[in-house]
Amino acid sequence: MVLMSNLNAKGATAALPPALLQVRGVTLEYATQERVVRATHRIDLDVHQADRFVLLGPSGCGKSTLLKAIAGFIPPTEGRIVLDGTPVKGPGADRIVVFQEFDQLPPWKTVLGNVMFPLLSTRSLPRAEVRERAQDAIAKVGLAGFEDAYPHQLSGGMKQRVAIARALSMKPRVLLMDEPFAALDALTRRKMQEELLQLWDEVRFTLIFVTHSIEEALVVGNRVALLSPRPGRVKAEVNCHDWDLHSMGGEDFQSAANRIHDTLFAEEP
Protein backbone atom coordinates (compact mmCIF):
# COMPACT_ATOMS: atom_id res chain seq x y z
CA MET A 1 0.00 0.00 0.00
CA VAL A 2 1.25 3.47 -0.89
CA LEU A 3 0.76 6.25 1.64
CA MET A 4 0.06 9.55 -0.07
CA SER A 5 0.64 12.75 1.86
CA ASN A 6 -1.95 15.47 2.32
CA LEU A 7 -2.80 16.36 -1.26
CA ASN A 8 -2.74 20.11 -0.75
CA ALA A 9 0.42 19.90 1.36
CA LYS A 10 -0.58 22.08 4.30
CA GLY A 11 1.68 20.79 7.01
CA ALA A 12 2.64 17.37 8.33
CA THR A 13 0.30 14.71 9.63
CA ALA A 14 0.41 14.28 13.43
CA ALA A 15 1.15 10.93 15.05
CA LEU A 16 -2.01 8.87 15.46
CA PRO A 17 -3.20 7.00 18.58
CA PRO A 18 -3.83 3.24 18.42
CA ALA A 19 -6.50 2.30 15.89
CA LEU A 20 -10.09 1.79 17.04
CA LEU A 21 -10.77 -0.60 14.16
CA GLN A 22 -8.17 -2.87 12.58
CA VAL A 23 -8.65 -4.76 9.32
CA ARG A 24 -5.85 -7.27 8.83
CA GLY A 25 -5.34 -9.35 5.70
CA VAL A 26 -9.05 -9.53 4.95
CA THR A 27 -10.08 -11.49 1.87
CA LEU A 28 -13.80 -11.66 1.09
CA GLU A 29 -15.54 -14.03 -1.31
CA TYR A 30 -19.12 -14.75 -2.30
CA ALA A 31 -20.71 -17.44 -4.44
CA THR A 32 -22.78 -16.94 -7.58
CA GLN A 33 -24.53 -19.67 -9.54
CA GLU A 34 -21.51 -19.95 -11.82
CA ARG A 35 -18.51 -19.43 -9.56
CA VAL A 36 -16.94 -18.06 -6.41
CA VAL A 37 -16.09 -14.37 -6.73
CA ARG A 38 -13.21 -12.83 -4.79
CA ALA A 39 -14.40 -9.35 -3.80
CA THR A 40 -11.34 -8.18 -1.83
CA HIS A 41 -7.82 -9.53 -1.42
CA ARG A 42 -5.82 -9.18 1.81
CA ILE A 43 -7.02 -5.73 2.84
CA ASP A 44 -5.17 -3.94 5.66
CA LEU A 45 -6.72 -0.82 7.21
CA ASP A 46 -6.57 1.16 10.45
CA VAL A 47 -9.50 3.40 11.42
CA HIS A 48 -8.99 5.71 14.38
CA GLN A 49 -11.43 7.23 16.85
CA ALA A 50 -13.36 10.11 15.21
CA ASP A 51 -11.94 9.36 11.76
CA ARG A 52 -13.99 10.11 8.69
CA PHE A 53 -12.58 7.18 6.75
CA VAL A 54 -13.65 6.75 3.13
CA LEU A 55 -13.47 3.60 1.01
CA LEU A 56 -13.15 4.85 -2.58
CA GLY A 57 -13.00 2.78 -5.72
CA PRO A 58 -14.70 1.85 -8.97
CA SER A 59 -17.95 -0.10 -9.06
CA GLY A 60 -17.43 -3.75 -8.19
CA CYS A 61 -14.16 -3.25 -6.28
CA GLY A 62 -15.55 -4.77 -3.08
CA LYS A 63 -15.92 -1.62 -0.99
CA SER A 64 -19.56 -2.31 -0.02
CA THR A 65 -18.71 -5.96 0.65
CA LEU A 66 -15.91 -4.83 2.95
CA LEU A 67 -18.29 -2.46 4.75
CA LYS A 68 -20.71 -5.36 5.32
CA ALA A 69 -17.86 -7.46 6.70
CA ILE A 70 -16.97 -4.69 9.15
CA ALA A 71 -20.66 -4.58 10.13
CA GLY A 72 -20.44 -8.32 10.82
CA PHE A 73 -22.77 -9.49 8.05
CA ILE A 74 -20.08 -11.34 6.06
CA PRO A 75 -17.29 -13.41 7.64
CA PRO A 76 -13.84 -13.01 6.06
CA THR A 77 -12.53 -15.91 4.02
CA GLU A 78 -9.11 -14.96 5.35
CA GLY A 79 -7.85 -12.39 7.86
CA ARG A 80 -9.56 -10.67 10.79
CA ILE A 81 -11.45 -7.53 11.76
CA VAL A 82 -10.94 -6.21 15.29
CA LEU A 83 -12.88 -3.42 17.00
CA ASP A 84 -11.25 -1.95 20.09
CA GLY A 85 -9.40 -5.20 20.75
CA THR A 86 -12.41 -7.50 20.22
CA PRO A 87 -12.70 -9.60 17.03
CA VAL A 88 -15.82 -8.89 14.94
CA LYS A 89 -17.82 -12.14 14.83
CA GLY A 90 -21.22 -10.82 13.76
CA PRO A 91 -23.52 -7.77 13.75
CA GLY A 92 -23.65 -5.59 16.85
CA ALA A 93 -25.04 -2.31 18.13
CA ASP A 94 -21.50 -0.93 18.20
CA ARG A 95 -21.60 -0.83 14.37
CA ILE A 96 -24.66 0.62 12.64
CA VAL A 97 -25.12 0.80 8.85
CA VAL A 98 -26.92 3.48 6.83
CA PHE A 99 -27.68 2.24 3.31
CA GLN A 100 -28.52 4.27 0.20
CA GLU A 101 -31.98 2.74 -0.30
CA PHE A 102 -34.87 5.01 0.66
CA ASP A 103 -37.06 2.03 1.60
CA GLN A 104 -34.95 1.15 4.64
CA LEU A 105 -37.57 2.79 6.87
CA PRO A 106 -40.69 0.79 7.84
CA PRO A 107 -43.47 2.80 6.12
CA TRP A 108 -46.02 2.19 8.88
CA LYS A 109 -43.89 3.94 11.51
CA THR A 110 -43.58 7.67 11.99
CA VAL A 111 -40.21 9.44 12.02
CA LEU A 112 -40.13 9.17 15.80
CA GLY A 113 -41.23 5.54 15.69
CA ASN A 114 -38.54 4.68 13.16
CA VAL A 115 -35.80 6.25 15.25
CA MET A 116 -37.05 4.69 18.48
CA PHE A 117 -37.52 1.20 17.04
CA PRO A 118 -33.94 -0.19 17.23
CA LEU A 119 -33.44 1.26 20.71
CA LEU A 120 -36.68 -0.30 21.93
CA SER A 121 -35.63 -3.62 20.37
CA THR A 122 -32.54 -3.76 22.59
CA ARG A 123 -34.74 -3.47 25.72
CA SER A 124 -31.81 -1.84 27.47
CA LEU A 125 -33.35 1.56 28.24
CA PRO A 126 -36.65 2.81 29.72
CA ARG A 127 -39.12 3.96 27.06
CA ALA A 128 -38.96 7.56 28.26
CA GLU A 129 -35.17 7.62 27.84
CA VAL A 130 -35.49 6.02 24.39
CA ARG A 131 -37.95 8.73 23.35
CA GLU A 132 -35.70 11.48 24.66
CA ARG A 133 -32.64 10.07 22.87
CA ALA A 134 -34.60 9.67 19.63
CA GLN A 135 -35.95 13.22 19.77
CA ASP A 136 -32.43 14.52 20.36
CA ALA A 137 -31.13 12.63 17.32
CA ILE A 138 -34.02 13.88 15.18
CA ALA A 139 -33.24 17.45 16.19
CA LYS A 140 -29.54 16.96 15.38
CA VAL A 141 -30.36 16.01 11.76
CA GLY A 142 -32.68 18.99 11.36
CA LEU A 143 -36.04 17.19 11.46
CA ALA A 144 -37.53 18.64 14.63
CA GLY A 145 -41.23 19.13 13.95
CA PHE A 146 -41.46 16.09 11.66
CA GLU A 147 -41.66 13.48 14.43
CA ASP A 148 -45.22 12.47 13.47
CA ALA A 149 -44.64 12.35 9.70
CA TYR A 150 -44.55 9.03 7.81
CA PRO A 151 -41.85 8.05 5.27
CA HIS A 152 -44.16 8.57 2.28
CA GLN A 153 -44.55 12.20 3.34
CA LEU A 154 -40.78 12.83 3.25
CA SER A 155 -38.35 13.64 0.47
CA GLY A 156 -35.42 11.35 -0.28
CA GLY A 157 -33.02 13.58 1.63
CA MET A 158 -35.32 13.69 4.64
CA LYS A 159 -35.61 9.89 4.66
CA GLN A 160 -31.82 9.67 4.74
CA ARG A 161 -31.76 12.09 7.67
CA VAL A 162 -34.16 9.78 9.52
CA ALA A 163 -31.89 6.82 8.79
CA ILE A 164 -28.88 8.78 10.10
CA ALA A 165 -30.81 9.85 13.20
CA ARG A 166 -31.80 6.24 13.84
CA ALA A 167 -28.17 5.17 13.59
CA LEU A 168 -26.86 7.98 15.80
CA SER A 169 -29.49 7.33 18.48
CA MET A 170 -27.85 3.93 19.02
CA LYS A 171 -24.55 5.71 19.84
CA PRO A 172 -22.47 3.20 17.87
CA ARG A 173 -18.69 3.02 18.13
CA VAL A 174 -18.59 3.17 14.32
CA LEU A 175 -21.18 4.59 11.88
CA LEU A 176 -21.04 2.79 8.53
CA MET A 177 -22.50 4.53 5.47
CA ASP A 178 -22.82 2.70 2.15
CA GLU A 179 -23.11 5.32 -0.63
CA PRO A 180 -25.89 7.02 1.38
CA PHE A 181 -26.31 9.99 -0.97
CA ALA A 182 -25.78 8.27 -4.33
CA ALA A 183 -29.49 8.21 -5.27
CA LEU A 184 -30.10 11.88 -4.43
CA ASP A 185 -30.15 14.74 -6.91
CA ALA A 186 -27.01 16.91 -7.02
CA LEU A 187 -28.35 19.77 -4.88
CA THR A 188 -29.76 17.47 -2.20
CA ARG A 189 -26.55 15.43 -2.20
CA ARG A 190 -24.49 18.57 -1.60
CA LYS A 191 -26.81 19.60 1.24
CA MET A 192 -26.59 16.15 2.86
CA GLN A 193 -22.79 16.19 2.66
CA GLU A 194 -22.80 19.57 4.36
CA GLU A 195 -25.17 18.38 7.10
CA LEU A 196 -23.15 15.20 7.68
CA LEU A 197 -19.98 17.22 8.20
CA GLN A 198 -21.74 19.65 10.54
CA LEU A 199 -23.11 16.70 12.50
CA TRP A 200 -19.68 15.10 12.71
CA ASP A 201 -18.23 18.40 13.93
CA GLU A 202 -20.79 18.38 16.75
CA VAL A 203 -20.77 14.69 17.74
CA ARG A 204 -17.31 13.51 16.53
CA PHE A 205 -18.46 9.97 15.76
CA THR A 206 -16.22 7.51 13.90
CA LEU A 207 -17.37 7.22 10.29
CA ILE A 208 -16.60 4.71 7.55
CA PHE A 209 -18.09 5.97 4.30
CA VAL A 210 -18.30 4.15 0.95
CA THR A 211 -18.41 6.10 -2.32
CA HIS A 212 -17.26 5.87 -5.93
CA SER A 213 -17.16 9.67 -6.25
CA ILE A 214 -13.64 11.12 -5.94
CA GLU A 215 -14.98 14.59 -5.14
CA GLU A 216 -17.28 13.27 -2.41
CA ALA A 217 -14.42 11.27 -0.89
CA LEU A 218 -12.20 14.35 -0.70
CA VAL A 219 -14.77 16.51 1.08
CA VAL A 220 -16.37 13.89 3.36
CA GLY A 221 -13.22 12.08 4.45
CA ASN A 222 -10.16 13.04 6.39
CA ARG A 223 -8.54 9.78 5.23
CA VAL A 224 -9.32 7.90 2.03
CA ALA A 225 -8.37 4.35 1.07
CA LEU A 226 -8.12 3.87 -2.70
CA LEU A 227 -9.23 0.38 -3.78
CA SER A 228 -8.25 -1.32 -7.02
CA PRO A 229 -10.77 -2.96 -9.35
CA ARG A 230 -11.96 -6.39 -8.20
CA PRO A 231 -10.58 -8.07 -6.29
CA GLY A 232 -10.21 -4.91 -4.23
CA ARG A 233 -6.75 -4.21 -2.87
CA VAL A 234 -5.61 -1.04 -1.11
CA LYS A 235 -3.58 0.80 -3.74
CA ALA A 236 -2.93 3.89 -1.62
CA GLU A 237 -4.16 5.89 1.36
CA VAL A 238 -4.70 9.63 1.10
CA ASN A 239 -4.76 12.20 3.89
CA CYS A 240 -7.13 15.01 2.92
CA HIS A 241 -7.85 16.84 6.18
CA ASP A 242 -7.81 20.31 4.66
CA TRP A 243 -10.39 19.87 1.91
CA ASP A 244 -14.02 20.82 2.49
CA LEU A 245 -17.11 21.63 0.46
CA HIS A 246 -15.80 25.14 -0.23
CA SER A 247 -12.73 23.63 -1.92
CA MET A 248 -14.76 22.02 -4.70
CA GLY A 249 -14.14 23.54 -8.12
CA GLY A 250 -10.80 25.07 -7.13
CA GLU A 251 -7.71 24.40 -9.21
CA ASP A 252 -5.85 22.64 -6.38
CA PHE A 253 -8.88 20.50 -5.56
CA GLN A 254 -9.33 19.41 -9.16
CA SER A 255 -5.65 18.66 -9.46
CA ALA A 256 -5.87 16.41 -6.39
CA ALA A 257 -8.95 14.68 -7.81
CA ASN A 258 -7.10 14.04 -11.07
CA ARG A 259 -4.12 12.53 -9.23
CA ILE A 260 -6.45 10.21 -7.32
CA HIS A 261 -8.15 9.18 -10.57
CA ASP A 262 -4.76 8.38 -12.10
CA THR A 263 -3.78 6.32 -9.05
CA LEU A 264 -7.06 4.40 -9.02
CA PHE A 265 -6.88 3.42 -12.67
CA ALA A 266 -3.15 3.01 -13.13
CA GLU A 267 -2.30 -0.44 -14.44
CA GLU A 268 -0.72 -2.82 -11.95
CA PRO A 269 3.00 -3.48 -12.62
From TrEMBL:
Alphabetized Pfam families for the sequence: ABC_tran
Domain ABC transporter: 23-254
GO MF term (any one): ATP hydrolysis activity
InterPro entries xref list: AAA+_ATPase (IPR003593), ABC_transporter-like_ATP-bd (IPR003439), ABC_transporter-like_CS (IPR017871), ABC_transporter_ATP-bind (IPR050166), P-loop_NTPase (IPR027417)
CDD domains linked: ABC_NrtD_SsuB_transporters
PROSITE patterns named in the record: ABC_TRANSPORTER_1, ABC_TRANSPORTER_2
Family to which this protein belongs: Belongs to the ABC transporter superfamily.
SMART domains according to UniProt: AAA
Alphabetized UniProt keyword annotations: ATP-binding, Nucleotide-binding, Transport
Biological source species: Paracoccus laeviglucosivorans
Protein name: NitT/TauT family transport system ATP-binding protein
Gene3D superfamilies, per the entry: P-loop containing nucleotide triphosphate hydrolases
Coiled coil: none
